[in-house]
# Entry
Amino acid sequence: MTALPGRNPRLMIMAAACWLVVPWSAAEAQSDNDFRARRSEMVERQIVGRGIERPEVLRAMRTVPRHLFVDPALRDRAYEDQALPIGDAQSIPQPYLVALMTSLLELDGSERVLEIGTGSGYQAAILGMLAAEVYSIEIMDDLGQRARRTLSELGYSNVQVIIGDGYRGLAAEAPFDGILVTAAPGRVPQPLLEQLRVGGRMVIPVGGYFQDLLVLTRTADGIEEERIDLVRLEPMTGEAQKDPDWTARYSCPASSPKPAGEWWSRRDLNPRPPRCERGALPTELLPHLMIQPRWRLGAAGIVSSPRVASKESSRGMQMQDSAPTSRFGTVIV
# Structure
């Protein structure tokens, strides 16, 4: 090919490449700025507005790119006030719930933390910004591999994802300063309690279709328990399913369920949902579950906590009925 006078073909090709790259980079920067603005709005409205004040938690929630932990088709909804499906009938929790459970661990940056239920890896990333070491166990191989890849690509080098059943924890790395459980067993797994350091805290949902969110603190004398709120997270599977309570709590009723708005009562702490499936929440309902602060019971709403308990020890609890509101909110379906 004969070059035109005064024209360098190599320079022309490089110039054309730059012309293509610059608009793409500008669009990418604009997208990043847009997601950053959405993250900031999410924190102010959904988290600060609901009373979470720990600066380090707010900083992590403003920093971790939640949209990179969800399906690309759902990235525009990543910062909405709701859970989102991530595949395999699992979901990434509502941002407020992530912030709440993280805040309850009261991390100062020096801790070794165990997470049970990696899911998308988003909660592990938040923990990775607040703790020295994070070990996260995921029972579903595909989810675990995906989360491990995402965390690695984003540079969370202090987070290690282990594929396996988290019911028995990770004895080889115990004891832990904090344990955060994102899937609900029928009762607190004893192996996890044994792997908690004296002075350490465990945040765990325990129960059936709706669960009590508990904070368990190991002391020299035993375990102190604090009930925080009623939440809805995925049931713990694997060895947890051998617990007789698991089947009773999660299996569907034999008869047809009552219509929505009538099937729950304050005296039933483990209600059976309409159109329920054994061991899992119907996928179509996942995006509609959220916690809203101080909302009252509506036609399609479930009051968050039918009872209230203050700090209590493993030696016993004093329960009392409460009004149809709770400290943190109402579970809305």
In short: Residues 31 and 76 are 10 Å apart (CA to CA). The helical segments are 9-47, 55-63, 95-105, 122-128, 141-153, 190-194, 244-250.
